[in-house]
Design brief:
- This is Pyridoxamine 5'-phosphate oxidase N-terminal domain-containing protein.
- InterPro entries: F420H2_bilvrd_red/Heme_oxyg, Pyridox_Oxase_N, Split_barrel_FMN-bd.
- Keywords: Oxidoreductase.
- The protein is 20% helix and 41% strand.
- By secondary structure, the protein is of the alpha+beta class.
- Strands 1, 2, 3, 4, 5, 6, 7, 8, 9, 10, 11 and 12 form a twelve-stranded antiparallel sheet that branches.
């Protein structure tokens, strides 16, 4: 499944400079793909939030990441797949911060996992080489489950000429 199409784009003028224009999805998608670090927000069974940094790759219209099956984020997603991934420059007056809302779907097909594993190596280098077997990544003796989050809604927060863009898919 892919969301490589143009979403509905809207500038929220309530939170934007008077001369701001909406950021285009091609720019948002490019910056999502290029980011090195993301923050994943999930919800624990008792409703408390859980946030953790991780690496991810943009693949076939979605952000893909992996996690050990016993990690808190994996347990949270097994109970409630709704999540948010964020990334940005971490500075106040420049850049485009991005927020992706969606549902994490497990990726278990070995052929697809091999393509995602190749995307990790292309982006992060050989240190992030994963073996693929039995519907999961394997790295240094540990299993990692792979999830994909296709945007349902995404936001771009431009700094400098402040503008808040919403993309609906």
């Amino acid at each position: 499944m892919s969301t490589e199409h143009e979403p509905q784009t809207a500038l929220d003028t309530r939170f934007s400079s008077p001369d701001a224009t909406a950021a285009g999805w091609p720019e948002g998608r490019e910056r999502l793909a290029a980011a090195e670090l993301y923050w994943l927000s999930t919800v624990r069974r008792d409703g408390r939030p859980h946030v953790t940094p991780l690496i991810a790759v943009w693949f076939d219209g979605a952000l893909c990441f992996c996690t050990g099956p016993a990690e808190q984020k994996a347990r949270n997603l097994a109970h409630n797949p709704r999540c948010v991934l964020t990334t940005g420059a971490g500075v106040l007056h420049e850049g485009l911060d991005l927020v992706v809302e969606g549902e994490a779907e497990p990726v278990r097909d070995d052929a697809t996992l091999r393509r995602i594993a190749a995307a990790y190596v292309a982006k992060y280098g050989a240190e992030w080489t994963f073996e693929v077997a039995d519907g999961a990544f394997h790295h240094h003796g540990h299993e990692a489950l792979v999830h994909r989050v296709a945007p349902a809604t995404a936001f771009g927060f431009r700094k400098g000429e402040y503008g808040q863009t919403r993309w609906r898919f």
